[in-house]
Amino acid sequence: MDNSTFHTSEAFEMKIPEWQSKGLEIFYLPKYSPQLNLIEILWRFMKYEWIEWWAYKGWSYLVEYVEMVIRGYGTEYEINFG
User: What pLDDT, on the 0 to 100 scale, is given for residue 13?
Assistant: First the structure.
């Protein structure tokens, strides 16, 4: 987990024992480590590698672009770490 306020809230912390009893282990990423946070890697590719010029035309275009990438991830959009 990243260290966002939601993930460090009391309500979230109280659920951890329940999740652990079901075999889910929760661990927190070190602070300031976007290279370890998968969503940050995806955002970086969206912003610097894949973005289309029309996505900058306005908010609705940006939302459309993000939805398009998410729908096409794994087929039209892919991240290779090799």
Answer: 86
CB crowding 23-57: b at 16 or more within 10 Å, else e: eeeeeeeeeeeeeeeeeeebeebbeeebeeeebee
Q: pTM above 0.70?
A: no
Q: Choose among 74, 51, 75, 76: nearest CA to 64.
A: 51
Say how far apart CA 41 and CA 50 lie, in whole Å: 13
What is the SS3 assignment for 81? Answer: coil
DSSP bridge partners of 73: 77
Q: What is the pLDDT of residues 2-39, one digit of tens each?
A: 667 767 788 888 888 999 999 998 877 777 776 767 78
Structure tokens belonging to residue 11: 């309500």
Count other C-beta atoms under 10 Å from residue 4's C-beta. Answer: 9
